């Protein structure tokens, strides 16, 4: 039995709504460019959401302005996904949001004020906590039941969907908003640069010449509903979540194993759970960060599972940048839209396959194929690997 | 049916296994409290020294639980041992250290950045044991027995056979870690919200 | 005794938190990234790059460049001397 998805919402570098994101995906238009909004003096390529905090606060009509960018982005996406669904006291509602940086964007402002021996605004710190990010979103949406914040690095978004789906399956909730959000910060840029996996040029997932990722920011949320909830809300079922799995790679704090063990297990188990045959997977939305290590390990994992018959695959990170905890949710929504619109997105910036594996991603938009089932991968630091399957059948 | 078969509680000064005191802070030692515990355990794992305090503490608790019954985990396939941890302040302490490395020292430290994610502690335990099971880290306002019990139920119903779960409220100055091992069909304390709440109340008071 | 090598060992022990290792435990030819030597990993390699910049003002921009240089204390010292005289 698949879990029903009845709402989607995204803000990312390529658009402020799911529709805008879809237009950019179809047009092959990347949202990555030089820093414009973040206070970062270096000339870096980043996938920023094209709106200042001020603009977001205004468009979201928020009265309590003490709010992090991470919450603002999350709220924008969560509102879209929740749509016009009405709260009902006889239905158990929840929100599971994931984040890796929480309110770090504002803690950075605080920290600089503090170092400058001026008078730092201590209220800025109230939004630092990762849990606060979710609580702000929940309170703005009026969700008071189950509120949970997950933090498992770059697989967080998919883990939130997994947990939500399971809580529906077990009848613990009737409807749940699931997803992730992360704002761009100097903290993460500095961190990935210190690991020497930040590409100063455009990221090139699955390309032999790849040298690293470009960071992005954004948020993605999906509304999952039980049939009981749908009977009340009248929301249309957009797509189904059919399978999911998470596995530890048990190899290294940040690097993926060369044999792709954790990734292989996650993909394999998710497909098994879905009951969908290997040859019926129409498209794989890969994790594909553009780092030497991830893309090789993920390629090996795809070969381990699919052998010579690897489905059409691509990474959409050259569009959005790597949005960390939001990535899994954003890419899940891309997967849902791929099924709804029979689309397979191109892997931008690709020219030559990785020597060791020779895999060729899709390089131009495919529109003439039925897309029934999609696998989306999200692999995080800590060796936290998750895979999830969406389809148009129950 | 699942059971709480072992539990380990590490505080600022003491380490308890199944409610019994096994080690206490030695103020005469020049080692930190967690380093004292590491030496007490008599396991050589040099990576321990590179971990942040959150990872050190989670790792130690897992080692104490293993030591209580060395054969305990050998009967499980390596992908059937799941982990779910939570705390209140995520990786805040490492976040501050890393922020200091780039704002004040001007050299962002990769080794510190690695620990600015709370789930790295799970990665460390997985690496040390070669466990490939499911894993999750949540950030909660306080220890929530229902979260752990419900999550473990989910894990058991999807193939996991043992679940290492726990609360890791750890900073350099304050340690409060409570880690439990949940197993199926073994006997022991029945794993439910009431029993876990009781264990916690006993431990935290 | 080669001062640079001894100094390097001290810095490495400190920078990488190798608490159980003493300067005299590291031979100049020990393979740093091998289990027979110090068993360092890729994060350690990045810290060594930070170390070179911090103490010797040497910038390594490509991680692959570090790979050869960081084989042993011997090769690290050679690399530092070469980069220093090149400036």
Mean pLDDT of chain A: 96
CATH first level of the largest domain in chain A: which class? Alpha Beta
What name does the CATH topology of chain B carry? Peroxisomal Thiolase, Chain A, domain 1
Q: Ranges of chain B with pLDDT <50 over ≥5 residues?
A: none
Cα(first) to Cα(last) distance of chain A is 6 Å
Oligomer kind: heterotrimer
Strand proportion of chain A: 15-25%
Shape call of chain A: globular
CATH class of chain B: Alpha Beta
What characterizes the major β-sheet of chain B?
8 strands, mixed
Q: Which percent bin holds the helix content of chain A?
A: 25-40%
CATH architecture of the largest domain in chain A: 3-Layer(aba) Sandwich
Question: What do these coordinates show?
Answer:
The complex is a heterotrimer of chains A (394), B (205) and C (87). Chain A has 394 residues and is an alpha/beta fold. Helix content of chain A is 34%, strand content 18%. Chain A starts with a strand and ends with a strand. The relative contact order of chain A is 0.18. Chain B is an alpha+beta fold and 205 residues long. In chain B, α1 packs parallel to α2 and α2 packs across α5. By secondary structure, chain C is mainly α. Chain C has one domain: Orthogonal Bundle (Non-ribosomal Peptide Synthetase Peptidyl Carrier Protein, Chain A). Chain C is built from four helices and no strands. β5 of chain A pairs antiparallel with β5 of chain B.
